[in-house]
Amino acid sequence: MKSIKMRTMILAITIGLLAQTVADACTGILLKTKDGKTVSGRTLEFGVEVSTSLVAVPKNYPFTGKTNYGDGLKYRTKYAMTGLITFTDINIADGMNSAGLSCGAFYFPTFAEYTPLTQENQSKALSPLDFNNWVLSQFATVDEVKKAIENEEVVIVPTILEGWGDTPPPFHYIVYDKSGKSIVIEPIKGRLVVYDNPIGVITNSPTFDWHMINLRNYTYLKSENAGSMTINGVTFKQLGQGSGMYGIPGDFTPPSRFVRATAFVVTELPAETTFDAIKDVFHILNNFDIPKGFSREVVDGRIYADYTQVTLARDPNTLKFYYKTYDNQRIREFDLKAFDANSKKILMLTTASEQTVDNVNHQMKPLK
Questions:
Q1: What is the pLDDT of residue 49?
Q2: Which residue among 114, 169, 312, 361 is the one 20 to 30 A from 19 at the CA level?
Q3: SS3 207
Q4: Do 360 and 65 form a contact (C-beta atoms < 8 A)?
Q5: 106 Cβ neighbours under 8 A, 6+ residues apart
Q6: Residues whose CB is less than 8 angstroms from the CB of residue 352 and which lie 6 or more positions away in sequence, other chains included
Q7: pLDDT in 10s for each residue of the chain, 368 residues
Q8: 281: helix, coil or strand?
Q9: How far apart are CA 221 and CA 308, in angstroms?
Q10: Does residue 206 have a cis peptide bond before it, meaning omega lies within 30 degrees of 0?
Q11: What DSSP state is assigned to residue 4?
Q12: Domains along the chain?
């Protein structure tokens, strides 16, 4: 028991240190099918292993917001919901509800400034992890979320959370609804700022409006190959496919990932079905998959390598939630429609599992 507590303490200290360095390199996208339906997905990266579990939460389940000085907002779920939690805190860090609303928390280091906790606002206060859970449990559309924030129905207060170090974890959030509308919500200078997100892409710091302005630096990018050129009668042809995207940033910083994710989204050929689009989500996000060792930080002589621990996708039309992990690339599915929304219990399954391999020897046939 002492060794477990010691490992937990070391992990918490490490995450606190990394919050200001390696941070979290998550990337989120939205895709549309030919008939206008939408699906979405994201990667989840961290510099140390963060345990995650899949949960399903029924309707009318009670939750209480956390603050450093007691209980915050008390509420009950209006919608059933599913998604991933971190550590053992039953607050969904990324998920989808039974109305097809999806919401995800993304790291937002050096820019997140939460509302100070006061006696006056404690009854509507939420921790940075509570906020995402509250959105999923209470709303069906992006417009409903925007209205609630405009009415200041909640505040996000700086809260020390178990497993997340000795400082409040810095987050901003993306919300998608079934229609394809998307917003980004950021805690800026003590208030929640909402941005419409017409392309459905999100990464990390700096602020969302900065990322949108930065896209102007890449207006020359195009999906079609560049043409040939002639110098003194000599014709120089392109070396291969992809020349129209020459110069696209390839590193894993948040600004570069935002540009690259936007390029993938706007050039993706629309799929026939939402399941085909889900497969496309995973194909695109494979380009943001960080192997252990490529992105690293050295703290007190120890290497912490940021890597893609989970990749997930959400289909608000079928209410199916998909995910794969670093250790097991097989895609797994949870069908929220098959879950009893009136149950009294939360279901949970750890995402940790070993990779399986299909042996095809028995499928081989003699050549005719």
A1: 87
A2: 312
A3: coil
A4: no
A5: 24, 26, 28, 42, 171, 172, 173, 174, 202, 203, 204
A6: 51, 325, 327
A7: 444 344 444 444 444 444 444 447 899 999 999 999 999 999 999 888 899 999 999 999 999 999 999 999 999 999 999 999 999 999 999 999 999 999 999 999 999 999 999 999 999 999 999 999 999 999 999 999 999 999 999 999 999 998 898 999 999 999 999 999 999 999 999 999 999 999 999 999 999 999 999 999 999 999 999 889 999 999 999 898 999 999 999 999 999 999 999 999 999 999 999 999 999 999 999 999 999 999 888 888 888 889 999 999 999 999 999 999 999 999 999 999 999 999 999 999 999 999 999 999 999 999 99
A8: helix
A9: 27
A10: yes
A11: H
A12: 2-349 (3.60.60.10)
- The secondary structure element, H or E, covering residue 322 is strand 320-325
Question: How far apart (Å, rounded) are the C-alpha atoms in residues 337 and 98?
Answer: 8
103 noted as active-site residue: no
Q: Which residues contact residue 344 at a Cβ distance below 8 angstroms, ignoring those fewer than 6 apart?
A: 58
- Which residue carries 């997930």 as its tokens? 312
Burial 205-242 (b: 16+ CB within 10 A, else e): bbbbeebbeebeeeeebeeeeeeeeeeeeeeeeeeeee
Enumerate residues 6+ apart whose C-beta is below 8 A from 225. 238, 241, 242, 243, 244
The amino acid occupying position 74 is K
For 340-367, the DSSP string reads -TT-SS-EEEE----------GGG----
Residue type, 117: L
- Cβ neighbours for 355, distance < 8 A, ≥ 6 positions apart: 327, 328, 329, 330
The first and second tokens of residue 83, run together, are 């998604």
Question: In DSSP terms, which residues pair with 107 in a beta bridge?
Answer: 171
Report how far Cα 11 is from the mean position of its chain's Cα atoms: 22
Question: What pLDDT is recorded for position 22?
Answer: 45
Nearest-CA neighbor of 165 among 13, 276, 297? Answer: 13
For the stretch 283-292, contacts whose Cβ atoms lie closer than 8 Å and that sit 24 or more positions apart, written own/partner, are: 284/29, 284/31, 285/27, 285/29, 285/41, 285/42, 285/43, 285/311, 285/313, 286/311, 287/260, 288/25, 288/27, 288/43, 288/252, 288/257, 288/260, 288/261, 289/43, 290/25, 290/43, 290/45, 290/252, 292/326
Query: Of these residues, 12, 25, 26, 265, which one is catalytic?
Result: 26
pTM: 0.92
